[in-house]
Amino acid sequence: MSSRIRFGGDYNPEQWPEEIWDEDVEIMRAAGVTTATVGVFSWSLLEPAPGEYDFGWLDRVLDRLHAGGIGVVLATATASPPAWLARRHPESLPVTIDGVRLAFGSRQQFSPSSSAYREHALRLVRRMAQRYGSHPALEMWHIGNEYGAHVPRSYDEESAAAFRAWLVARYGTIEELNRAWGTAFWSQHYASFDEVGVPSRTPTFPNPTMVLDFDRFSSDAMLALHRAEADILRELTPDVPITTNFMGPFKDADYWQWAEHVDIVSDDLYPDPADPRHHVLAAAARDLMRSLGGGKPWLLMEQAPSAVNWRPRNAPKPAGYYRALSLQALTRGADGILHFQWRQSKAGAEKFHSAMLPHGGTGTRVHREVRALGAELAELGDLAGAPVPAQVGILFDWDSWRAVEQDAVPAERDYLATVLDWYAGFLRRGVTVDFVRAGADTSGYRLVVAPLFHVADDAAVAELASVPARGDVLVVGAFSAVLDENLHVRLGGYLGGAEGPLQAALGVTVDEFAPLAAADTETAIGGTVTGVARDWQELVVVHDAAVLGSFGDGFAAGGAAITRRADESGGAGWYVATEPGEALRDDLVARWLVDAGIEPGFTRPEAFAETVVRAGRRLVVNHDDVTRELALTGGTVTVEARQAVILPAAGDDTVS
Ligand code: GLA
Fold first, then answer.
1. 146 Cβ inside 6 Å of ligand 1
2. 461: how many CB neighbours lie within 10 A of its CB?
3. What are the residues facing 533 on neighbouring strands?
4. Do residues 581 and 609 lie in contact, with contact meaning Cβ atoms separated by under 8 Å?
C-alpha cells in the first residue's frame, strides 16, 4: 500500500469546455488532490456511434492530469450506455416487475442479463484497456458504477432465460429444484426447467425460495458483468488493480461474494446529516467495507462534501462535519477519501449536488473545507495501509436480510435497522466491530454477535455453536437460525433445529414466535437484567441456561427473554429472545464486554459520539448538535458539536 491517503473525486471534464481543464488541474493541485476518477459516464462521447471511437479528448484529460501529478482511477465507462444501444437493441432496456420497459434518458438503463449490452460494454472495455493500459496516469480501474443502484434486477426475457440457466447450474435436476423450492406446496411442481419463469406479479405470495433465488441470481447477474469486465482488464493490464464502487450495506448485491472479485473494496456513502442516526449507518458501512476486504484498507470512492440532491430535502453538512465524517472513514480503514464530484455540474440532474469545487468557485465555504482536508490528509500518510483491530464480530448476512423481509412471516422486520441497533450498542461504547460472513471462521473474535441471523446453513450453525466451547462469548438474537439455506424450517424446536448444535450451545429451544402489536410496542424485562424491549417475544424453553431476564407482560409473560449458558471452557452463550431498547441494550453490551474481557473506548454509553483507533491515533467524533464532554477510557475529552479530534491512542491500540 502507498504511504499516502488518496484525495480527490469523480472528475467529469466532458461537461465543461476544454479551456477549463487546465484550471481544474491547477485548483486540484492547490487543494491537495491526488486522484481523479474519470470517465464514469463517458460512453456516449467515447463511442458516439457503434464501433466508432473518439478517445482524443480523454487522452488530453489524462495527459493533463498526469502532467499535474494527479493519478487516475479510470472508469470503464460502461455504467450508462448510449442512446444508439437503446435504439438498436430495445431488448437491452430493463423491465420492471410490472412489465414496464424502462426508457433511455437517465442512466443505468440496461438489463443485467442483456447480451447486447454485455457485448458492447465488453468491446468498449477492451478498447479502453488497450488505449490506456500503459498510460502513466492510470492507477486503478473502476468497473461500471454502483451496480444495481437503479436497476438491481430485470424481468425481461433474457433475464428469465439467464435465471433458468442459473437454476440448472445450482440444482442440476428439476427434482432437486422442486425439493429445494418445496413445490409440493400449492401445486407449484415443475416438470422441467423450461416451465420456470421469473417471480413477477402473482395472485398471492410467490414461492419464497424462488424469490430468494431470484434475488441471489440478480446479484450474480450483475456480478457476472463485473467479472466479465474484470477478466478483460486482468488479461490486458494484469498489474493495474480493479475496483467497483459498493453502496454501503446494499440489499440487492451480496457484497461478500462481490468482494472476492475486486482488488480493493471501494464504497460510496452519503449519510444524511439531518437523520439523527446517520452516524450509526456511516460507521457500520465503513466497518463493513473493511470487513468485506478481510481487514485490508478500502477506498471511500464517493461522498458529498456537503448536501446531496436526491432526497426530498437535502441538508448541508454543518461546518467541520465533512472533515469529521471523512476522518471517520479514514480511521475505520479507508486509504482514500474521494468524492462525487470535483466540479459541481452546471446542467443535468445533479446540478444541486455539492461538489469539491462549487458553483461559487474557490472562495466558497465548501471549497475551503475541501482544501483544509486535503492538507490534513497529506499529513496523515502514516495511516495508509494500517489495520483497524477489532475484537467483536457481528454477523451480516444477505440471505437473512432478504428472507426476513419477505411476505408471509410472523411480522414485518427491518433487517438493516435491527443489525444497526445491535451495532449501535457497541458504537456507543467506542468498541470497534468487524462484520463477519455467515460460516466464516470467527476464532479471531472474543465476542461473536448474531442478530436476526434467520437463514443459517449447517456450517454457519456449527461455527456459531463452537464459539462458547472454545472459551469465547456468543450472543444470538431473536428469530435466528430458524431456516436453512433453502428457507426450509429447521425442525425440532427453533434455533437451529433439534439436530443442530445451537440449542445445546445456548441451552434453550424456541417454541413459538410472538411479535408485539407493532415494531415499537414495548415489553418489560425483569430479573437480573431489567429494562424495556420492543417488537418481539418468543416462548423460550430453557434446559441448560441461567435466565437473566424474563418478559413482564404480554403473550410470553413470565417466560425467559434473556438467557446465558456458561460453558465449562469458560465461554458463554447468550440468547436474546426480543429486541432490547436502547438502555437495556447498553446494559447488555456492558455485560457482554465484561464476559469477553474487552475494554471499551468510552466508560459510559455515548449516544451521539464514536471513537476508534487506527495506527496509534484515536479519533473521537461528536455527532451531536451541542458540545459534549465525552467519557473516554483514560480521561474525558470535550468535543464541539459535529467536530472530530484526533488524539494519540493511549496504551495498547489493539484494544479500542
Ligand atoms: C452515486 C453515483 C454518482 C452520483 C452520486 C450522487 O454515488 O455513483 O454518479 O450520482 O451518487 O450522490
1. yes
2. 26
3. 523, 580
4. no
Which of the following is catalytic: 47, 146, 463, 538? 146
Q: Are 621 and 614 in contact (CB under 8 A)?
A: no
* Per-residue exposure over 399-410, b if at least 16 CB sit within 10 Å of its own CB, e if not: bbbbbbebeebe
The grid cell for 123 is: 468491446
* pLDDT one-digit tens code per residue, 189-213: 999 999 999 999 999 999 999 999 9
Using DSSP's 3-state secondary structure scheme, residue 557 falls into coil
**647: helix, strand or coil:** strand
What are the pLDDT digits (tens) for 412-459?
999 999 999 999 999 999 999 999 999 999 999 999 999 999 999 999
Asked if 249 contacts 285 with a C-beta cutoff of 8 angstroms, the reply is: yes
User: What is the C-alpha separation between 95 and 110, in angstroms, rounded?
Assistant: 9
Q: Are 190 and 213 in contact (CB under 8 A)?
A: no
Q: Considering the candidates 158, 229, 302, 369, report the single residue annotated as catalytic.
A: 302
Q: Tell me 298's DSSP state.
A: E
pTM, rounded to two decimals: 0.98
Could you tell me if the CB of 307 is within 6 A of ligand 1? no
For the chain, domains (ranges, CATH) are 6-154+220-383 (3.20.20.80), 157-209 (no CATH), 392-596 (3.40.50.880), 609-648 (no CATH)
Q: Which atom of ligand 1 is nearest to the CA of 245?
A: 8
Which atom of ligand 1 lies closest to the CA of 310?
12
Is the distance from CB of 272 to CB of 309 less than 8 angstroms? no
